[in-house]
From TrEMBL:
<keyword id="KW-0732">Signal</keyword>
<dbReference type="InterPro" id="IPR011249">
    <property type="entry name" value="Metalloenz_LuxS/M16"/>
</dbReference>
<keyword id="KW-0645">Protease</keyword>
<dbReference type="InterPro" id="IPR007863">
    <property type="entry name" value="Peptidase_M16_C"/>
</dbReference>
<dbReference type="InterPro" id="IPR050626">
    <property type="entry name" value="Peptidase_M16"/>
</dbReference>
<feature type="domain" description="Peptidase M16 C-terminal">
    <location>
        <begin position="241"/>
        <end position="309"/>
    </location>
</feature>
<feature type="signal peptide">
    <location>
        <begin position="1"/>
        <end position="27"/>
    </location>
</feature>
<keyword id="KW-0378">Hydrolase</keyword>
<protein>
    <submittedName>
        <fullName>Insulinase family protein</fullName>
    </submittedName>
</protein>
<dbReference type="GO" id="GO:0008237">
    <property type="term" value="F:metallopeptidase activity"/>
</dbReference>
<keyword id="KW-0482">Metalloprotease</keyword>
<comment type="similarity">
    <text>Belongs to the peptidase M16 family.</text>
</comment>
<keyword id="KW-0862">Zinc</keyword>
<dbReference type="Pfam" id="PF05193">
    <property type="entry name" value="Peptidase_M16_C"/>
</dbReference>
<dbReference type="GO" id="GO:0046872">
    <property type="term" value="F:metal ion binding"/>
</dbReference>
<feature type="domain" description="Peptidase M16 N-terminal">
    <location>
        <begin position="91"/>
        <end position="227"/>
    </location>
</feature>
<dbReference type="GO" id="GO:0006508">
    <property type="term" value="P:proteolysis"/>
</dbReference>
Length: 992
């Protein structure tokens, strides 16, 4: 038996212990039959009826067909595409795409496409009123993640990821979804129920960010429908909607010849096709299909205002004053969008465009890192809503001299348009793209069916095709001779030519900038700046030239964990490593290094440095590598440097490839033992954190992001967001003092899992983590008394925001616990919170007409003995905050007084069962559960009970948990109110 089969076999053994169905075993192939087969059909097996000779997606294109997809058309005009994909095992992803969004509405119908999305979930031929969520939950689908819908300017897509797909559950799912789109009820009562929810969603999306988005659309797309066609609509058109007017929009666009059904999953394509034909085949359109409306094209301004005949004339400019948002500029050069022939030459042009943009962006980033006039700047080309082909230039200035920031960015772009890049610059970006195209080839057997389905949806939306990863890589590599300096120069010039250039500037103070001043700044000629071009290094950095971390050391112990094929290595310096080679995930290796004591090991007085570390620790460099050198040394490689701060540990994480594993290990180990302390990343992080701070106050959600964790952790300053005044007190010397200590103290646990060879990994570990100096103990966090929790109170803490006056948020939280000994109870709490969420969603939507914002979640810090909580929250209007608290209290007390019904439990436990079962098909799932297990081996045992803990319970157990944690005098509350209405809550407004 091969090593890979042994891995699958041992995983299957564990899943049996977990009572996970065999189909969750890691599949060796995305289309393999490993796992439980779909239930046999009682009739003769279906045969594919798709058109394999002339698939509709590829007509007129020379793009190689992705043969995994099978494309068909029915007599009623409905098109479909189906494919087999076994990732995750047992799941089938269904997408029903309607080729109509907000740009298809008339003036009086604004918001109807999105309103219809809601109403189709409300009631239809096979779904009783308000029963859609429960219907899909019974099939194991979780609302919001497995079941959802999206309305954009150009399409409406209904999405379902069906776990544990069987013949009967698939039949039922297609039945329900066909009834939704082909026979919705659309009654007056449905409209009455859904309209307040849509209006609440409009309210929740308001605020400064929405004002900026709206202003940007009006300026950039002036004269086109897109300038005023947001999917959410307007209050006037929505409140004027009638069943008749909504049905008129529905009948115009919801017709089979305007719909595509896309299915990818762990089933025979012919069987999937049979369900499409069975449930959508009888749907008939009425009348002729209407032509799609014109989306218009960008219009050049009257008169010419430019500094170069090759550039687009400068048109509309606007300055928007938003005191809580950072200053920022967006310049857009627009060209008409045209339906393209999606062929190989067209895609080679896109590749050349991508190289041109990458070169400019690298130059801009280099200039920003050096401490220029702007914090960030970037160039990005997009085809927007089939309305315009746009090149966007975004700039975040530093300080008040916005003219200098804009001039410096324009100067870099002017240089790129004046003189061709070097071949070395092109080769660097080509190497990066090569890796980006190669990784999907290596990992195509583990690409989820949901992603493949979504990729096809997006291709339909932009009127293009899809190609298999192998073909994309082959075309790219065959095209490399085309990527010459002259070609890149030509494409760079094309990116900044067009019909019109428009711009918008968001500023914090009125009067500092005017529309005319912004326009003049764009017209002013600039001198090309070649200083940002990356010099060719005659002695490029490479891993073999980097200093050794220390003397290589062999592990002193190599022991099996008893769990799957996971082994634990121990080094004399105290470093412990968990190894799990699994070749069923080809081309992907994950490396995690947990170290130190996390947030609670930082002195409270040093708390601002925690935030700055998240911004700047990685960028501060290591050994003799600064940011530029780190970029260079990773060129053409798949390497990462994700850094996170947890309660009781810090973590470095990367997804890499087998051939890059040894060098990835060096980067992480060198960060701990050979840190470098460049000042510029610190200063840039400090500026970014200060700019970011004011933005939190623009909405209730922003305030919660800023302060909720601080209050949940008993106002421990280490969990606060530092203010600009606190940031001003930080210094590079302080940053080095805090983080050099954090990097050098506490245990080190390394995880390596995925496609790697143990015989290669161990020598690499010996040279890196095995060579580290012995570590000092980190500050202890084991004392429960050190973990502060909020005091119970019925009087809410009140925070304020500067956003729209009709926005507020309410939070109620009950402290629970923590620690690995309580892991199994924490999983049972997840069941309780799901029950609470379902009840809260129903109750608050009925009482307050809110959207989908109410939810309840449980946190349980495994590394600490306290600090967990059950938290319920929702975005509501200010007057409804007390109603939310009252409703949450009533639900909590009812859960204490009365056990949930068996049916209510089933609506929660079945989706949880499917979530765990699907997750169990991934190595990441198990390794996430085992974080910290090298110092706390009890976590190994709790893996075996995961499925049981999350799904097996009784109404009485839920009632007992509610009584233990949801007591009437156990909670504390927080409200986020508009600044001018804060006093209405009757509570003291917090100064934070």
């Amino acid at each position: 038996m091969t090593k890979s089969m042994r891995a699958a076999s041992s995983l299957a053994s564990l899943l049996v212990l977990m009572q996970v169905p065999a189909q969750s075993v890691l599949a060796q192939d995305a289309g393999s039959d490993l796992g439980a087969p779909l239930e046999a059909s009682p009739v003769q097996a279906p045969v594919l009826q798709t058109n394999e000779d002339d698939p509709w997606l590829y007509r007129g294109s020379d793009i190689p067909r992705d043969k995994g997809w099978h494309f068909g058309e029915m007599d009623n005009g409905l098109r479909y595409a189906v494919r087999k994909n076994g990732v995750p095992p047992g799941q089938v992803s269904i997408r029903v795409r309607v080729d109509a969004g907000s740009l298809y509405e008339t003036d009086s119908e604004r918001g109807y496409a999105h309103l219809l999305e809601h109403m189709l979930f409300r009631q239809s031929k096979y779904i009783e009123e308000g029963q859609a969520i429960a219907a899909f939950q019974r099939l194991g689908a979780t609302f919001g993640s497995d079941t959802n819908a999206v309305t954009s300017t150009t399409q409406t897509v209904f999405q379902l990821d069906l776990p544990n797909a069987t013949a009967s559950s698939l039949d039922e799912t297609f039945k329900l979804m066909s009834g939704m789109v082909s026979a919705p009820t659309l009654s007056a009562s449905n409209l009455k129920q859904d309209l307040p929810i849509v209006l609440a969603e409009m309210r929740e999306r308001g605020g400064a960010a929405k004002r900026v988005q709206d202003a940007m659309q009006k300026v950039f797309y002036a004269g086109q429908p897109l300038s005023e066609r947001e999917p959410i609509g307007t209050v006037q058109t929505l409140t004027s909607a009638t069943p008749k007017s909504v049905r008129a929009f529905y009948q115009r666009w919801y017709r089979p010849d305007n719909v595509t059904v896309i299915v990818a999953g762990d089933a025979d394509p012919a069987m999937l096709e049979s369900y499409v034909r069975k449930w959508f085949g009888s749907w008939q359109a009425k009348g002729a299909k209407p032509e799609a409306p014109s989306f218009g094209a960008p219009v050049a301004p009257k008169g010419y205002a430019g500094n170069n005949k090759e550039l687009a004339p400068v048109g509309e400019t606007r300055v928007l004053v938003e005191p809580d948002l950072p200053p920022g500029m967006m310049v857009a050069t627009l060209r008409p969008w045209h339906q393209v022939i999606d062929n190989i030459p067209y895609n080679q042009g896109l590749m050349t465009d991508a190289i041109a943009q990458a070169i400019i962006n690298r130059r801009l980033e280099s200039k920003a890192r050096a401490g220029g006039s702007f914090l960030t700047a970037s160039v990005n080309q997009e085809d927007v809503a089939r309305s315009a082909d746009v090149t966007f230039v975004s700039v975040t200035p530093l300080g008040d001299n916005w003219e200098a920031a804009l001039r410096d960015v324009r100067a870099v772009i002017a240089d790129a348009m004046t003189r061709a890049p070097t071949q070395a610059e092109i080769d660097r970006e080509v190497a990066e793209l090569d890796v980006a195209f190669q990784v999907p080839v290596e990992q195509q057997r583990i690409l989820p069916g949901s992603k493949l389905a979504d990729d096809l949806v997006n291709a339909l939306d932009i009127r293009e095709t899809v190609a298999a990863p192998d073909d994309v890589l082959r075309i790219f590599r065959e095209s490399k001779p085309l990527f010459t300096p002259d070609a890149v120069l030509e494409h760079t010039r094309q990116l900044f030519s067009g019909t019109v250039t428009r711009a918008m500037f968001t500023t914090q103070e009125a009067g500092k900038v005017t529309d005319a001043a912004l326009r003049q700044a764009l017209i002013e000629p600039v001198k090309a700046d070649a200083t940002a071009r990356l010099a060719v290094n005659s002695d490029p950095v490479s891993f073999d030239k980097l200093p050794a971390i220390g003397a290589p050391a062999q592990p002193v112990a190599d022991t099996p964990t008893g769990l799957l094929d996971i082994e634990e290595l121990t080094f004399a310096n105290g470093v412990k490593v968990m190894l799990w080679p699994v070749t069923e995930e080809p081309g992907r290796v994950v490396v995690k290094a947990r170290f130190g004591g996390g947030t609670r090991s930082i002195a409270p007085g040093d708390s601002p440095y925690i935030t700055l570390g998240q911004y700047a620790l990685v960028g501060s460099g290591l050994a003799n590598l600064g940011q530029e050198e780190l970029d260079q040394i990773a060129t053409g490689r798949k390497m990462g440097f994700e850094f996170t701060v947890d309660d009781a540990a810090f973590q470095l994480k990367a997804e890499t490839r087998p051939q890059d594993l040894a060098d990835q290990l060096y980067l992480f180990a060198a960060k701990l033992d050979l840190p470098r302390w460049d000042v510029n990343p610190f200063e840039r992080a400090k500026a970014a954190a200060k700019i970011q701070y004011d933005t939190y106050a623009t909405s209730p959600q922003g305030v919660l992001n800023r302060d909720l964790q601080f209050y949940q952790r008993g106002e421990d300053p280490r969990f606060s967001t530092p203010t600009p005044a606190e940031l001003d007190k930080t210094t590079p010397e302080g940053f080095k003092r805090v983080w050099s200590k954090a990097l050098s103290e506490g245990p080190v646990e390394v995880q390596i899992y995925g496609d790697f060879d143990k015989a290669v990994a161990i020598p690499a570990l010996e040279k890196t983590f095995g060579a580290l100096k012995s570590r000092k103990p980190a500050a202890s966090t084991a004392d429960p008394a050190a973990v502060a929790v909020p005091k119970p109170s019925e009087k809410p803490i009140v925070l304020t925001h500067h956003g729209d006056p009709d926005q507020a948020a309410a939070v109620i939280s009950w402290p629970t616990g923590g620690g690995s000994m309580g892991i199994r109870e924490s999983r049972q709490l997840e069941i309780l919170t799901q029950i609470f969420t379902n009840r809260l969603l129903d109750a608050v939507r009925e009482k307050l007409g809110v959207a989908y914002s109410p939810y309840v979640y449980s946190s349980w810090p495994v590394d600490l003995q306290a600090g967990g909580s059950i938290t319920a929250m929702a975005q509501v209007d200010p007057k409804s905050v007390p109603v939310f608290f009252q409703t949450a209290d009533e639900i909590a007390q009812d859960l204490i007084a009365n056990p949930p019904s068996a049916e209510e439990l089933q609506l929660v436990t079945e989706p949880l069962r499917q979530q765990v079962t699907r997750a169990a098909s991934s190595t990441a799932f198990f390794m996430n559960q085992l974080e910290g297990a090298t110092s706390d081996p009890s976590r190994l045992g709790t893996v075996r009970t995961i499925l049981y803990d999350y799904t097996e319970t009784t109404p009485e157990k839920m009632q007992a948990l509610a009584a233990r944690y949801l007591g009437e005098n156990a909670s504390w509350r927080l409200a986020v109110m508009p600044q001018d209405k804060a006093g209405e809550s009757g509570a003291v407004v917090a100064s934070k």
